[in-house]
Design brief:
binds uridine-diphosphate-2(N-acetylglucosaminyl) butyric acid; about 425 residues; UDP-n-acetylglucosamine1-carboxyvinyl-transferase, Chain; alpha+beta
């Protein structure tokens, strides 16, 4: 199993360019199933979750080609399969978007339950509720979900989500795009990748409005057509490099970002004493003084993202005083990395949803294990700040969502290498 070896202690300095958003890409690629024509998609991140999805789509009959680095052409005209390969589906979480996409295009889907990062119980009851409201019959076993148009066919509906769910919002948008009538999703997720998916679908001929607010309206259309689209930059990849700059006392220009999407993160880093300068599509993060303690609570967008919980925890671990970090989306997410950070010298006390993090002057390098994608990212930035050598194992989690991470970190002065065992 490959691992990363990091020799810490160097302040990061220079420019890093952010790739396309993972969580937008993994929704937009299944959305291409709705299009009987060629989609040219730019800013596609070079990450293993994207490659797994492309393998799944290709095994179903899609044709795709990388025309340039990060520019993909995909044509799903010839797809007829509605039962994607379960082994591939189980490799990742977002393969559950095949359910909504196949239901929309073919009126049926037989999809294995997804795999992916298991940092918490991740139910899909709200996805199923959405399909049922649209008139589908749904049968669930322990391994599969079988969905088909019910006796009355599929029809737009008003669906009020019981919890704000990115996945359910995406799946219902996909399912309703090619359906008769109007669907209204209430209590919808507002994340930038929801807006990006709506923009992609509208570019291909869908009629979706309200994405980015908590009420999304989808007027079903008969058919989509091919077109060109560019995926937004990755908010969490950008936030991770910003945290890495902060924690190492660095000075990094993070390029290809949408500063508006970063506000919840820039605000916190400013509170910690970092100097942040925003440009049109870049943010500079500089730290010259010790980090100060802060209080953070994760929330759905526009709140502080749960996907940045672990990275901000590393900043807190090296700040002056006691910081408080409350998780309100996935209660068990602390368990993916806090014990590993403690092995590096961090002082963290978890009480239900809140971690109290007492800053220490330095972390020490040791061997740690990534248990999920963002936990892995946090351990890397902890290693960059730590004294000595840190070895991060289980890096396949990290490579699910961070493109060219070694090249990008090395270019800003990090001493990190990938070792293939
Ligand atoms: N929930 C339910 N029922 C459902 C769906 C969700 O109770 O049917 C609950 C979850 O248990 C959780 C909350 O609702 O407490 C939010 O879950 P959501 O559905 O929004 O999460 P997701 O769609 O499974 C996406 C991202 C995650 C990110 C979360 C929250 C993708 C592919 N994944 O997951 O990203 O943490 O939204 O923002 O978009 C990551 O990138 O590392 C990652 C895990």
């Amino acid at each position: 199993m490959a691992k990363y070896e990091i020799i810490g202690g160097t302040p990061l300095s220079g420019t890093v360019t952010i790739g396309g958003a993972k969580n937008a890409a993994v929704a937009i690629l299944p959305a291409a199933l709705l299009v009987p024509g060629k989609c040219r998609i730019e800013n596609v991140p070079d990450i293993s979750d994207v490659h797994t999805l492309l393998d799944i789509l290709a095994s179903m009959g899609a044709k795709f080609e990388w025309v340039e680095q990060s520019i993909l052409e995909i044509d799903c005209s010839d797809v007829t399969c509605t039962e994607p390969d379960p082994t591939l589906v189980r490799k990742m979480r977002a393969s559950y978007y095949l359910m909504g996409a196949l239901l929309s295009r073919y009126g049926k889907a037989h999809v294995a339950l997804p795999g992916g990062c298991n940092f918490a119980s991740r139910p899909i009851d709200q996805h199923i509720k959405g399909f049922l409201c649209l008139g589908a019959d749904v049968e669930e076993t322990e391994e599969y979900v079988d969905i088909s148009a019910g006796p009355e066919g599929l029809q737009g509906a008003r669906i009020s989500l019981d919890v704000v769910s990115v996945g359910a919002t995406v799946n219902i948008m996909l399912a309703a795009t090619l359906m008769q009538g109007q669907t209204i999703i209430e209590n919808a997720a507002k994340e930038p990748h929801i807006v990006d998916l709506a923009n992609f679908l509208n570019t291909m001929g869908a009629r979706i409005s309200g994405a980015g607010t908590d009420t999304i309206k989808i007027r079903g259309v008969e058919k989509l057509k091919g077109g060109n689209y560019a995926i937004i930059p990755d908010q969490i990849e950008a936030g991770t490099y910003m945290a890495a700059a902060a924690v190492t006392g660095g000075n990094v220009l993070v390029k290809n970002v949408i500063p508006k999407h970063m506000e919840c993160i820039t605000t916190r880093l400013r509170e910690m004493g970092c100097k942040i300068v925003e440009f049109d599509d870049a943010i500079r993060v500089q730290r010259t003084a010790p980090l100060r303690r802060i209080t953070v609570k994760t929330m759905p967008y526009p709140g502080f993202p749960t996907d940045m919980q672990a990275q901000i925890c590393v900043c807190m671990a090296l700040a002056n005083g006691v910081s408080r970090l409350t998780e309100s989306v996935y209660e068990t997410r602390f368990f993916g990395y806090c014990s590993e950070l403690e092995n590096m010298g961090a002082k963290i006390k978890i009480n239900e949803k809140t971690a109290s993090v007492t800053g220490v002057p330095l972390l020490r390098g040791t061997t740690v294990h990534a248990k999920d994608l963002r936990a892995g990212a946090a351990l890397i930035i902890a290693g960059l700040a730590a004294q000595g050598t840190t070895v991060v194992k289980n890096i396949h989690y990290v490579e699910r969502g961070y493109e060219h991470i070694i090249d990008k970190l090395t270019a800003i002065g990090a001493n990190i290498r990938r070792i293939d065992d």
